[in-house]
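Researcher: I've been going back and forth with a colleague about how Di-/tripeptide transporter might be arranged in three dimensions. Neither of us has a model we trust, so I'd like an independent prediction. The organism is Bacteroides graminisolvens DSM 19988 = JCM 15093, in case that matters for your notes. Sequence below.
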Amino acid sequence: MNSLKGHPKGLYLIFATSTAERFSYYGMRAIFILFLTQALLFDKELATSIYGSYTGLVYLTPLIGGYIADKYWGIRRSIRWGAVMMGLGQFLLFLSASMLHTPGWAHGLMYGGLTLLILGNGCFKPTVSSLVGQLYTPGDKRIDSAYTIFYMGVNVGAFIAPLACGYFGETGNPDDFKWGFLLAAVVILLTIVIFETQKSKYLLSPDGKQLGVLPDARQQALSAEQAKSASAGEQSSRKWRNLGILAALALVFGTLFYLWLGDDWVSVGIFTACLVFPISILLDSSLTKIERERIFVIYIIAFFVIFFWAAYEQAGASLTLFAAEQTDRVIWGWEMPASWIQSFNPLFVVLLAYIMPAFWAFLNKRNREPSSPAKQAIGLLLLSLGYLFICFGVKDVQAGTKVNLMWLTGLYFIHTMGEIALSPIGLSMVNKLTPLRFASLMMGLWYLSMATANKFAGMLGGLYPEAGKEKILLGFRIETMYDFFMIFVIMSGIAALILFLLSKKLRQMMHGVE
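Model: Here is an independent structure prediction for Di-/tripeptide transporter. You can compare it with whatever you and your colleague have in mind.
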């Protein structure tokens, strides 16, 4: 019987593959900025700029990888070559860290490694996510819990990676960073071995067919009516017209963002892509009215997801600074490293991943389960409540006074509940609402919202209070941590309220898909 605990065995192959790949990603990320500042001796401004561009582009390239998978390679080949490129990228970082006494080589290898990691992630990330939903028949109620299990695998890797790669790489000796990168390279090699040896046995559709062998666009032919709707000449004319529209929009949006952001070309590119690429799919003449409305639902929710991740991703910047500077981390005489707090979130995800699906199932049996848009709104509300919780901890606290670790722990716990309500449900929703021929590309667009959020998070993180520097947002001075955290309480709360109000209409536009 091709099932394990109620799910296809292929789900657990994807779980293992994703766990290994995410270990590689989060392990490298845990020590990367330290490597830049302590080994390559970059100043903090340059180091954070490189780090921000890297994380933003990691979520942008799934658009390209999704297109290649849908049109040319298919899912299996994209996963394989994505993992190979990431493995080579980690190995180049290992070589970079091994050549600290020759800065020219160290810098060049570092940039080369980042390039391969970005491209490899672009091929891997959207395809492995879209593969989960294809293990089930349309309408299968297990899909939401399947994406939650998949998401748990991601966080198992994210929890272990900083501890392991940090243990070997962050020793106080700059020459040891290479061992952290080498460990990440070895684990991504394990990803390739697991996937290539087991894929034919377990990656099967409900009717027993091999999944991901051919590009999805070839498997879903247009209907006879659509094929006859226009002549070849008309189709060619429409194609060039659409390209012209997209080029004009890219020029207009790119110019506006350039006038706003200056020569920060990564930000200009990400924000422009966030507007232009979604329009490119809507211009496809093969879309039916129902398909178009379902895609609109994805776009609307993706817009609100930007606000979620922009607040949530403060974990890697402002919340880490808060942990290091204003949090009492002494436990029974031992001071916990500030970086270890980054493992709180994935640990909570692993623990809550069993509870949240059971809670949704409990409500479903009583016909009280919220719709997918409502679950996204709940995620945003919980994010707002997490920041409100820590606001109580920092209110009226004098500068230089450290607060109890309980406040930061509570914030991460509440945020994790919001993450599980929003992120895996969002992945499931994209899979269920997207026409098969756009499966990986739409998953890439979903990740594009996260790329935009990462850059937006950096802008908001710049408002972190600093002595002697004036920080102003919309005319309001940001002078204390209470002021800073209230930004995210208000932003997330307003987004949650609006999405709650829209959820009924969005559910109608989903046309019965839940």
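Researcher: What would you highlight for our discussion?
Model: I'd start with this: Confidence is low (pLDDT under 50) at residues 221-227. After that, consider the following. The first strand starts at residue 327 and ends at 328.
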